């Protein structure tokens, strides 16, 4: 198969070496990605820095128009990108899979293109005039994860270029192919050097976070990596947006109808096979409805087809990589003797198992805080269910975690649910649903789940420096 190329200064750039990108459903190569070296990153930053000089001076209207043209070209190549995404990431084509992700990328691009950060007049009187401007930062370094390679790349890049910055993006080595193609398409409508893509191993990221000519890093991924990025970026005082790990808790109140909420509970937890930062990862259920909620969750889960993502009937694919499969397996093995396995739970054996990094949909009841599957982020198709009898206790247990990305409250009495939601220590709270983000609503975490926000005007402003002009 022909290898993909880096995209630098609007051109395809070959590398001395390539690396295989595996399809997690078959463990066979999905493609060959270019292995960038330090000099490739230097070239990418250099051309991005040069392009910034002119791009920052383009009118906001012209940058908005460019973003709309990007949405059009993504939409025109939607099926190509979806097929590539399924091949390297493993998620299904249908449901909330690759076609949904690419469609979301189009919608996010279009909405973001409508945003504006105009001058704000703070004062205009006999004492003088004071104006506030939002100025672009410069070169933005984007480091993206493997769970939503296309969508998150768009979340990083579109507000960056709309604000007048230029971009060097490094996708995960597990899923670089769709991002390379996406950036290639974007270069058909953008000036050369505005968006560049380098792919490679874990040596490239630290070079980006410490680079003197990169003014901002935007990163989505684990809290551990986020800490290292903060430390590296401190040398040059880079601006940062970090969307880090989550261990989202859901609290089910005693007045729910278990049958009515089962489907939404399931997809809140198992979207993308549970490989979602803001997925429901711990479920606290009141005594009065505990067994019924467990029963309805299992009943719905049994109907959801799992398999190779290219099968049009499949709704959930494999775990994306072997290392993540090991993490999920380890947490489930630790939880099995401590709880009650309601569904799944049988760890796949490397000897004799079918190809692919598949783990069965798993629901384990009767666990508690202190159990690893409750305390640690599983990032896979597994949900622990915890019983509670006192709502104050449930809130305390939900908050007893270093993460604070999202949370949810489930109940018929919306006012009661809202009052409980206000007590949860997280950046987003949903009522009777979980994880439903949208482009006009800011999204970000508290505690160790990150710094800054994405989406909407607040997210766009994160790609700017504030400048005050006195006259």
UniProtKB/TrEMBL annotation:
CDD domains xrefs: ALDH_AldA-AAD23400
Pfam family, any one: Aldedh
GO molecular function, one term: oxidoreductase activity, acting on the aldehyde or oxo group of donors, NAD or NADP as acceptor
Keyword terms: Oxidoreductase
InterPro entries in the record: Ald_DH/histidinol_DH (IPR016161), Ald_DH_C (IPR016163), Ald_DH_CS_CYS (IPR016160), Ald_DH_CS_GLU (IPR029510), Ald_DH_N (IPR016162), Aldehyde_DH_dom (IPR015590), LUC3-like (IPR044086)
Domain of life according to the entry: Bacteria
Chain ranges of the Aldehyde dehydrogenase domain: 17-469
Active site: 243
Family designation: Belongs to the aldehyde dehydrogenase family.
PANTHER family: ALDEHYDE DEHYDROGENASE-RELATED
Name assigned to this protein: Acyl-CoA reductase-like NAD-dependent aldehyde dehydrogenase
Taxon lineage: Bacteria, Pseudomonadati, Pseudomonadota, Alphaproteobacteria, Hyphomicrobiales
């Amino acid at each position: 198969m022909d290898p993909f190329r880096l995209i630098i200064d609007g051109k395809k750039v070959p590398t001395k070496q390539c690396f295989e990108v595996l399809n997690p459903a078959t463990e066979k190569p999905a493609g060959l990605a270019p292995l960038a070296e330090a000099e490739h990153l230097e070239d990418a930053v250099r051309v991005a820095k040069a392009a910034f000089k002119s791009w920052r001076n383009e009118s906001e209207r012209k940058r908005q128009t460019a973003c709309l043209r990007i949405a059009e070209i993504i939409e025109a190549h939607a099926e190509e990108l979806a097929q590539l995404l399924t091949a390297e990431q493993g998620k299904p084509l249908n449901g909330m899979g690759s076609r949904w992700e690419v469609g979301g990328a189009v919608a996010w691009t279009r909405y973001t293109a409508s945003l504006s950060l105009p001058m704000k007049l703070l004062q205009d009187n006999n004492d003088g005039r004071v104006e506030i401007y939002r100025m672009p930062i410069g070169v933005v370094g984007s480091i993206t994860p493997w769970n939503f390679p296309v969508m998150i790349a768009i979340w990083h890049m579109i507000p960056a270029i709309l604000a007048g910055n230029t971009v060097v993006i490094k996708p995960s080595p597990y899923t670089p192919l769709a991002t390379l193609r996406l950036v290639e398409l974007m270069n058909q409508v953008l000036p050369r050097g505005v968006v560049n893509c380098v792919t490679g191993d874990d040596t490239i990221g630290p070079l980006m976070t410490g680079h003197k000519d990169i003014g901002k890093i935007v990163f989505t991924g684990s809290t551990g990596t986020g800490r290292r990025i903060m430390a590296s970026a401190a040398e040059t005082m880079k601006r940062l947006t970090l969307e880090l790990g989550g261990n989202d808790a859901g609290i089910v109140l005693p007045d729910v109808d278990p049958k009515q909420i089962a489907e939404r509970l399931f997809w809140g937890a198992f979207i993308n096979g549970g490989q979602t930062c803001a997925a429901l990862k711990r479920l606290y259920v009141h005594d009065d409805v505990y067994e019924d909620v467990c029963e309805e969750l299992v009943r719905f889960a049994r109907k959801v087809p799992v398999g190779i993502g290219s099968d049009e009937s499949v709704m959930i694919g494999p775990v994306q990589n072997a290392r993540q499969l090991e993490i999920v397996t380890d947490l489930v093995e630790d939880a099995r003797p401590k709880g009650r396995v309601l569904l799944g739970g049988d760890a796949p054996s490397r000897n004799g198992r079918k190809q692919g990094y598949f783990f069965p949909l798993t629901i384990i009841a009767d666990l508690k805080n202190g159990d690893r599957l409750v305390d640690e982020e599983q990032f896979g198709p597994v949900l622990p269910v915890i019983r509670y009898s006192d709502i104050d206790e449930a809130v305390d247990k939900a908050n007893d975690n270093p993460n604070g990305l999202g949370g949810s409250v489930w109940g018929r009495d919306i006012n009661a649910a809202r009052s409980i939601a206000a007590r949860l220590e997280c950046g987003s709270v949903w009522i009777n649903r979980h994880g439903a983000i949208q482009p006009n609503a800011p999204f970000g975490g508290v505690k160790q789940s990150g710094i800054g926000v994405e989406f909407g005007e607040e997210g766009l402003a994160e790609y700017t420096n504030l400048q005050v002009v006195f006259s």
